[in-house]
Amino acid sequence: MNRSFFQILTAGALATIAFDLFGQGLSPLFGFAKLAPVGLANGTLNAVFGSSPKGAADALHIMTGLLAYPLGYLLVARPIAGKILPNLHWSGVAIGYGIGLWVFALYGMAHLVAGLKPFLGFTGITWVALWGHILFALVAAWVLEREAEEPAHA
């Protein structure tokens, strides 16, 4: 199945909006932790480059959501799942991918790169981030997989 660049950007945009709405709006509204993806991106840039120009962390967060993570689903998660569990519905692949993104963000980037506690110390933000990454992956996969579920037109 071919996907257009526009479809990948749409998947990333909608998924990033869902992630930010959930993690920065709804979660704190209901008394849970507020995600700070731009803060993590800033810490990562500082750790890697020694500084972070104004706006660079915002750009990194947006570009990661628009392109890197949707492409990761298409080029990594989907092919691996196809080899290991070929009959697994895309939503199952997306949930697994979302958990993988969470591990990547909170262990790989936050801990190994930025030097923070692994999984941010398993505090409230850890669990909001888990659900946020799963939500991101489900929204992105839904957009990317819709074409596969639509019936063919004669």
UniProtKB/TrEMBL annotation:
This is DUF1440 domain-containing protein. The keyword Transmembrane helix applies. The keyword Transmembrane applies. The chain crosses the membrane at residues 59-76, 88-107, 119-144. Keywords: Membrane, Transmembrane, Transmembrane helix.
